[in-house]
Amino acid sequence: MNKDIETAVKRSQRCQRNWDLNKTIPENDLQTIVTAATECPSKQNIDFYQVHVVRDREIIEDIHDNTFFENDYDDGKGRTNPQVLANVVLAFTKNDITKKDQNQEVHDWSTDTLDKDLHQSVGVAAGMVNLSASLMGYQTGCCACFKSDEIKNILGTEQEPVLLMGVGFRDEDKNRRQHHVTDDMIPSFNKEIKVNYL
């Protein structure tokens, strides 16, 4: 079992850029993914975010059209982020917990503290989704480069979007780095995280 988990972790490290849209994620698998996104740990078990599960292809394509990688995207020179063209997109949006009666203690927290806890919670949720999806054989890709106001309009929410995450079936006929639409090859980077045992 340890080997399976390690393989899933290593597989989930890389962002998927293209998708097989002829397949559909079964409802029970999607429910497991949603559970991973919503039942994971957060500070004091507070609901810092909401999750929007997007399966409608038209909405997914609208979301994609409002992502960008480079600053000159509006000039038509930058590229979009095709990881959000997946079979399903999870959009994590900020939940204004200061307005909720059950979380009265957070009224005294600073904005910096709330933002830190929000981003930490979304990071944990994305990690849980990433590993769970990989264990079930799916690929994922996260995106934080998007036009916030447009994404809010597309989702029909006033909540600030924090992270978009594609989950789905990889296109077996393409390198995972090939852009889903343009086939341009997107760079990949390696990391080496140092571990100290005490």
The count of β-strands is 4
Class, according to the CATH hierarchy?
Alpha Beta
Strand content: 5-15%
* Share of residues in helices: 25-40%
Low-confidence stretches: none
CATH superfamily: NADH Oxidase
User: Order of strands across the biggest sheet?
Assistant: 1-2-4-3
CA-CA gap between termini: 26 Å
Number of helices in the DSSP assignment: 5
Q: Output the CATH topology.
A: NADH Oxidase
The major pleated sheet works out as:
4 strands, antiparallel
How many structural domains does the protein architecture include? Answer: 1
Could you say which structural class the secondary elements and strand pairing correspond to? alpha+beta
- Principal-axes geometry comes out as globular
Rounded mean pLDDT is: 92
Radius of gyration: 17 Å
CATH architecture: 3-Layer(aba) Sandwich
Helix and strand element order: HHEHEHEHE
Written overview of the protein:
The chain is an alpha+beta fold and 198 residues long. The chain has one domain (2-168): NADH Oxidase. It has helices at residues 2-12, 27-38, 57-65, 111-135, 148-155; strands at residues 49-54, 88-94, 139-143, 161-168. It has a four-stranded antiparallel β-sheet with strand order 1-2-4-3, sandwiched between helices. Helix 2 (27-38) runs antiparallel to helix 4. It is globular, with a radius of gyration of 17 Å.
